[in-house]
Each structure stands twice: as structure tokens, then as C-alpha cells.
Amino acid sequence: MTATSYEYGPHHTYVDPYAFDGSAYGDFPIAPPHPPRPPERLDIAIDPQDRRRLELHAALTAAGIPPLPEDREAIDRLSALPGNINDTIQRWLQHAL
Fold first, then answer.
1. Cα dihedral 63/69/54/81 (nearest 10)
2. Residue by residue, what is the 3-state secondary structure of 49-90?
3. pTM score > 0.70 for this model?
4. Which helix (H) or strand (E) holds 13?
5. Contact 1, 19 (CB under 8 A)
6. C-alpha to C-alpha distance for 78 and 67, rounded to whole angstroms
7. Residue 7 belongs to what H/E stretch?
8. What are the tens digits of pLDDT across the range 21-75?
């Protein structure tokens, strides 16, 4: 954000004291301590059913249907079905957009 100025007459300029861009005060983004190191990442695999459940939650939310707490059982049961059925459900939701 830059300072906003308003002209008052031919020789007067008002500078907004509340406009703040941060650069004059050393307010810069903090760099990460080190770049990400893929070999040091945790080697944890997600269960396929859990992955399908997360993908179904994301697809529902993207389609404008945020899952409610009482929808959990239905989502769990749908996620337990084979992957190709879950893919079909997600495809239907994508076409609903």
C-alpha cells in the first residue's frame, strides 16, 4: 500500500498518516530458515480410504456443498467403496460446477 495524497488547493498536498507500506520501517517477509529438503520429509503413507475421504471432502467443498458433521457416516461409507467409484463421484461433483 502506498501513501495516499489529496490535493487541497494549488500548492498544498495532504499525505495520509495512516497509509503504510511497511518498507520504510524494515517490515519485510521473513525468509524460511532453510529451503525444504525432500529427503528429510517423513515417510508416512496415507491409507487409500483416508485419501479418498479427504478427496471427497475437498470435492464436496469445491462444489459448494460443505460437509456437515452429520454427513460423516455417509462420507466414510462412500470412501470405503473402491477407488473407481470414488473417482466417479468426484467427477460428478466437478461437472456440477
1. -90
2. HHHHHHHHHHHHHHCCCCCCHHHHHHHHHHHHCCHHHHHHHH
3. no
4. strand 13-15
5. yes
6. 13
7. strand 5-7
8. 555 555 656 666 777 677 777 778 889 999 999 999 999 998 888 999 999 999 9
Band of pLDDT at residue 79, cut at 50, 70 and 90: very high
Give residue 84's pLDDT.
93
**Cβ atoms within 10 A of the Cβ of 6, count?**
9
Q: How far lies 36's CA from each of 31, 39, 40, 46, 58, in Å?
A: 12, 9, 8, 21, 26
Amino acid at 41: R
The total of other beta-carbon atoms located within 10 Å of residue 22's CB is 10
